[in-house]
Amino acid sequence: MDRIRIVGGNELNGVIPISGAKNAALPLMIASLLTSDTLTLENVPHLADVELLLRILGNHGVDVSVNGRRERQDEGYSRTIHFTCRTIVDTTAPYELVSKMRASFWVIGPLLAREGRARVSLPGGCAIGTRPVDLFIEGLTALGATMEIDGGYINATAPKGGLIGGTYTFPKVSVGATHVMLMAASLARGTTVINNAAREPEVVDLANCLNAMGAKISGAGTSTITIEGVHSLSGARHRVLPDRIETGTYAMAVAMTGGDVTLEGTDFALLDTALEAVRRAGAEITVTPSGLRVVGHGNDIRPVDVVTEPYPGFPTDLQAQFMGLMTRANGVSHVTETIFENRFMHVQELARLGARITLSGQTARIEGVSRLRGAPVMATDLRASVSLVIAGLAAEGETTVSRVYHLDRGFERLEEKLTRCGAVVERITD
Ligand SMILES: CC(=O)N[C@H]1[C@@H](OP(=O)(O)OP(=O)(O)OC[C@H]2O[C@@H](n3ccc(=O)[nH]c3=O)[C@H](O)[C@@H]2O)O[C@H](CO)[C@@H](O)[C@@H]1O
Ligand SMILES: C=C(OP(=O)(O)O)C(=O)O
């Protein structure tokens, strides 16, 4: 199993190109199930989750072609992929595939809308929380579907003639269930209104793509989304938006190590709450014509309290990284996690590097230390693993991060991007 070896202590200086967003690419790829025409997605990141979803979509009958053209001649980071699903050949999403990645459950929306039925395995248990699917069941039921659980699967059936527009008010904000409602309601008969919808930029990206395919969605990015169902959707060409979580992660890395890095191809507005927190911690962040410039001062990090919230609040997917940054602050900070009940597994690993963190319920109290020391640590989930990388970059000596497959789910060419900015980071394949 691969490990990442880091020798800490270097500043980061240079340019980091930001990839297309994993969390936008996944629902966009799933939207290809809604049409028999070709959906072309540009800027699709090369990640383990994307590769797995390509397999899952292939299972349903999606024909995939990657045109191989490198959009960045020198880097080859993003790809343009064409998805064509002339007919859905299988409406079952099996346990073996769905249990590996939660987002694959979202195929339930397009399968149900286009074929009138879907049998989709319940997603696997995930380390960061229980992550139930009750909101998907309630939401699709509001569109007239019958939803039954049988042998670990959800059997979803649309009424004769297809899904029917309806009104659904989410009792709790859910990104994935909002994606699924957008896709399902686009092909329903009549108008659907979703209240308390997720407002994440990835939801807006999906709605923009669906509209380019002929859907009639308004209000994406606000809490109330209205979808007028259409009879069919066509193909489209759409560019995946930049990865705000990758952007924030590298901004926090620079704030921690010190240095001067331009994050290319990204947009401050996608994550202003998180970047304001990094500014308050002492880094200078300016908007440039090509993205963002982050200047960090390493040893002069101020303590900042954050609370995770649905967008536009501080993202849970940057909580671990921010905690990593706070381990070296000049004082005490607090990080409160309100989205997932078990998203503090990085705490005990950061402690191996010398961090002083105590947990009380959903709040971590972090007492900044003047230095961290390298150690072997274990990645427990995607964002936790990158928080260990960030801390390792600022620690004295050598850190090895095991279980790197978590990192490969969501960070494209991480070691290459960091090495180009002066870090000592390498992958060790045993
Ligand atoms: C691939 C992808 O885009 N993943 C993101 C997506 O996950 P995902 O879409 O799975 O997260 P949700 O927004 O659905 O989850 C938010 C909260 O709602 C709960 N919930 C959700 C559905 C449901 O039926 N019942 C229920 O109780 C969850 O357990 C969680 O506590 O949004 C999360 C919150 O921003 C991010 O951390 C993930 O990176
Ligand atoms: C939690 C994440 O992904 P997933 O929802 O696929 O588990 C994430 O991207 O941080």
TrEMBL record:
Ligand binding (phosphoenolpyruvate): 22-23
Known pathway: Cell wall biogenesis; peptidoglycan biosynthesis
Record EC number: 2.5.1.7
Domain of life: Bacteria
Residue positions binding UDP-N-acetyl-alpha-D-glucosamine: 102, 131-135, 172-175, 317, 339
Keywords noted in UniProt: Cell cycle, Cell division, Cell shape, Cell wall biogenesis/degradation, Cytoplasm, Peptidoglycan synthesis, Pyruvate, Transferase
Residues annotated with 2-(S-cysteinyl)pyruvic acid O-phosphothioketal modification: 126
Domain Enolpyruvate transferase: 8-418
Predominant location: cytoplasm
Subcellular locations according to the entry: Cytoplasm
GO BP of this protein: cell division; cell wall organization; peptidoglycan biosynthetic process; regulation of cell shape; UDP-N-acetylgalactosamine biosynthetic process
Similarity comment: family membership: Belongs to the EPSP synthase family. MurA subfamily.
Protein name: UDP-N-acetylglucosamine 1-carboxyvinyltransferase
Gene field: murA
